[in-house]
Amino acid sequence: MSLAEVRARLGRAALLFDFDGTLSPIVDRPQDARPADGAVEVLGSLLGRAATVAIVSGRREVFLREQLPVAGLEVVGLHGVDPEHRMPPDVTEAVRSIAAGEPGAVAEEKLATVAIHVRRSPDPEGATARIAPLIAALAQMHGLRVLEGRKVLELVPPGAGKGEVVAKIVAREGIEAALYAGDDVGDVPAFVALEDAAARGVAICRVAVVGDETPPELRDRADVKVPGPDALVRSLRDLERS
User: pLDDT for 12-26, tens place per residue?
Assistant: First the structure.
């Protein structure tokens, strides 16, 4: 399980990437996120070399395509939730109420999903601890799933998640190698999906884009660790030139 094995099968490889914290530095306000220098160019170049290049993110597809204007790039937003899905209004209203009761917490309504961000809270860890059981109870009541991310909790329909998306892409006919790069606890299921693919003979490489908040579980599962989005772009340039 290494970058070299994926490089050797690049023409039959799926190259999969998270966005925030992976291709883009983390920022206080989600709407301010922008790709690292060179990210757009190297993704475009890899499209001509690999079988599939895809973004797998909790962001809306329209935002991702605005930030990564690469013709032919596959983009799976909202953790793979059907964008036509609509979160029940009472769930959205309940999440608004939970966020309003926690200083610095912000509800993000994506129509298909709804999330609470605590990055701007004076005590993000404490805020998460207080909010998490409320979100879990709401999820259980409505048959939803909670996805945890970097200072964010998100409610999604059952069956959604990066692991499920990655598993489907890597199972496509002709894919013999796969790389996934991520930085957060929400990317652990994507690593697990690659591990399952490796058991079927797919060559894999799990890349942890390491920052101050990268969870130990992601670091421990990684085959390659790079210190931030800029370093990931440099690694992809090396892959591009292989």
Answer: 999 999 999 999 998
Both tokens of residue 95? 């999440």
* Beta pairing, strands 177-182 & 13-17: parallel
Distance CA 159, CA 68 (A): 26
Mention every residue, 6+ apart, whose C-beta is less than 8 A from residue 186: 18, 58, 79, 147, 148, 149, 150, 161, 162
Structure-token match 């892409």, residue found = 169
Eight-class DSSP state of 83: T
pLDDT tens profile 46-101: 998 999 999 999 999 999 999 999 999 999 999 999 888 999 999 999 999 999 99
How far is residue 15's CA from residue 178's CA, in Å, rounded to a whole number?
6
Pairing of strands 74-76, 106-109: unpaired
Collapsing DSSP to helix, strand or coil, 106 comes out as strand
Say which residue the tokens 């609470």 belong to.
Answer: 116
Answer yes or no: are the C-beta atoms of 40 and 69 closer than 8 Å. Answer: yes
Instruction: Give the Cα separation of 166 and 171 in Å (integer).
Output: 8
Task: Please count the CA atoms within 13 angstroms of the CA of 109 that sit on its side-chain side.
Answer: 14
Per-residue model confidence (pLDDT) at position 242:
67
Query: Do residues 113 and 81 lie in contact, with contact meaning Cβ atoms separated by under 8 Å?
Result: yes
Kindly tell me the burial class for residue 17, based on how many C-beta atoms sit within 10 Å of its own C-beta (0-12, 13-18, 19 or more).
buried
Q: Which residues pair with 52 in a beta bridge?
A: 14
The residues, ordered by sequence, that sit 6+ positions from 122 with a Cβ below 8 Å of its Cβ are 103, 104
